Amino acid sequence: MDPVALITGSARRIGAEITRTLHQQGMRVIIHYRNSDTQANTLANQLNSIRPDSARVLQADLDKPDEVRRLGGDALAAFGQVNLLVNNASSFYPTPLEEATDADWDALMHSNLRAPYLLCQALSPSLRKHRGAIINIVDVYAEKPLEKHTLYCMAKAGLAMMTRSLARELGPDIRVNGVSPGPILWPEAGQMNQEAITASTALKRCGEPADIAGAVAWLARDAGFVTGQILAVDGGRSLAFQGG
């Protein structure tokens, strides 16, 4: 049977590209969404037209722990196993210190950190049985903070540490790695300094969703001796950070 991947936040944008790439490489895919039901079902129909019964769709609000746990159970029931977990879903918006609320804390911490942890917890027995892998989509801002985004940066820093810690805890049966994107797709809420960010990369350009999807696919299928690592796919943006 073809291996199964659960990709959170995979109805559109980078998550959809990851899903298409893994499907092209022969995996069955579980498309998770919160609100994008039309896009999720359209993507599933496209993939199932290529290979029948190779894509399923599941809905869950990752801000709610009970729904995250249900998602884990539903994912296992969909095809009877999960071989790869890609924690891609993320919330991103500014939270200046004087304005941040409890609701902001919940939204950014749950989607970026708690939900990935709970899914790792729920799916680890299947991942262990099938010697599977976990890939977390981190962020360059996990190491170098973005002004007025402290809660987001804290959550992604926690996700980076979770990646390394679980790599030790779950080895040798499960490999755990991360991908840290640079400028690929601009946030839908907008980002004022787009030109400066692009100029700060060594390659002087933005990347493509396919760059992230390719990194995920490599870590999932071809990097058998790699675990506990976070691969920066950022056009050299992190080099500029290191130089100030």
From TrEMBL:
<keyword id="KW-0560">Oxidoreductase</keyword>
<dbReference type="GO" id="GO:0047040">
    <property type="term" value="F:pteridine reductase activity"/>
</dbReference>
<dbReference type="Pfam" id="PF13561">
    <property type="entry name" value="adh_short_C2"/>
</dbReference>
<protein>
    <submittedName>
        <fullName>Pteridine reductase</fullName>
        <ecNumber>1.5.1.33</ecNumber>
    </submittedName>
</protein>
<comment type="similarity">
    <text>Belongs to the short-chain dehydrogenases/reductases (SDR) family.</text>
</comment>
<dbReference type="InterPro" id="IPR036291">
    <property type="entry name" value="NAD(P)-bd_dom_sf"/>
</dbReference>
<dbReference type="InterPro" id="IPR020904">
    <property type="entry name" value="Sc_DH/Rdtase_CS"/>
</dbReference>
<dbReference type="InterPro" id="IPR002347">
    <property type="entry name" value="SDR_fam"/>
</dbReference>
